């Protein structure tokens, strides 16, 4: 299936990419470099413009109060939601419509190429290039785990431009089917919907899709690609028995130039797999699968903390005992348990005690002195005490 993208790479851009493509042995990159750059620009535009504008309009009170770290994560989650939705729709469409892909044998799966598969490689590569850019820029926020994920994912999907296992690009990108639900779960926490029915139902779907797509489907497809790569390594030099070339035994070595060309195998070259290439690819694939199993355990732990037992692990809130009210002391005398403070307009012996009223507010630790000073005070024995300034 040819590349369904509506326009081809401009000649000037393709020519400027060919030198790098030849150096890195990425033969099909010049055909898709415009899609890589467009995907990078699209996701960065969502990050810089769409997410802030959308969030300020629909969630003005919440978005403007976020600190810098949380706002960064908010915008990144918006990009992830857009990217995962878009790429999964494209991948499912290619799997359903690309007839050449469905007819590939193990040799075609390892060395073959279709334009539709290249489109998936390009949009996935553009996102992972953007992801690596943001992760390096904010490494203190995202950590080494996310950096390893970004590097491994970009490396794996870039190899499809050799082409190498281009067949598996739409297959492995379906990991992203769980990402929209992961983003919704995160937004529920930030929108004060923690423990809500929406978060509960979304959490169930998230665990099911993550387990089904990344752990079951992903692990199974990893075994398949490992087996296909192993067959390509052990096959060694190309052997062929083709009626159009005459009768050959299975051990006859054939020059690739005499093999009838096909659109699928047009970039296959000598059809051998170097050990370094197989090792790096399998190591990156293993890293991604390991991270998926680790994150699945963390997700279960995190979701359970949002809900009450028996399914959840949220602990009931323990109300802290009220702190004893501190006594307000004036010159070492407690005013909390004493009789009500007299005011200036009081009659009798207390009338001469103040020039103005000293007012003690309830539940307060300070005094409001409405006039300048205390001239004298009457002790418990009824005898006057020495005057002192109120402070």
TrEMBL record:
It comes from Bimuria novae-zelandiae CBS 107.79. GO terms for cellular component: endoplasmic reticulum; membrane. PROSITE patterns: TLC. It is a multi-pass membrane protein. Keywords: Membrane, Transmembrane, Transmembrane helix. This is DUF887-domain-containing protein. It is found in: Membrane. The lineage of its organism: Eukaryota, Fungi, Dikarya, Ascomycota, Pezizomycotina. The keyword Transmembrane applies. It comes from the Eukaryota. Pfam families: TRAM_LAG1_CLN8 (PF03798). GO terms for biological process: lipid homeostasis. Its main location: membrane. Residues 69-308 form the TLC domain. The chain crosses the membrane at residues 36-59, 79-96, 111-130, 142-161, 167-188, 200-220, 275-296.
